[in-house]
Sequence to fold (143 residues):
Amino acid sequence: MYILAPNGTAEAYPYSSDQLRRDNPNTSFPKSPTDALLASYSVFPVTGTERPVYDPITQDLSEGAPLTIAGVWTQVWAVTEATPEEVVQRQAEQLASLKQQRAYAYTQEADPLFFKAQRGEILLSEWETKVDEIRARYPYPVE
Fold:
């Protein structure tokens, strides 16, 4: 991951060697240009950072423009609060997804056990245990 930063000012990010070639059509670059060669065109590597922990229901994560920290261009993340409308929408989507996943797990895992219990092949408690396991795996949010 690279940044185009003439005079130390971020101009384009992310920036790739393909973009460098397009921006300099009369220049022949090696397949893998060195950092020194890239720097001569004001293109610098950006050191990646871990994404911060955030709540995807109530917060948004976005990548900001890299900053120079101790002379190294460094990836920056921003966590912002979602709007109340976005939170409500995300909660509804999360609940719908959980319901779908839970229903699928019931049909694939619990229903066959229920029918076996009906035929006397297993104890009903085995089916109940599976249902509890599925509920724990796909818990509905507490309001």
Notes: The chain is about 45% helix and 20% strand. The two ends are 42 Å apart (CA to CA).
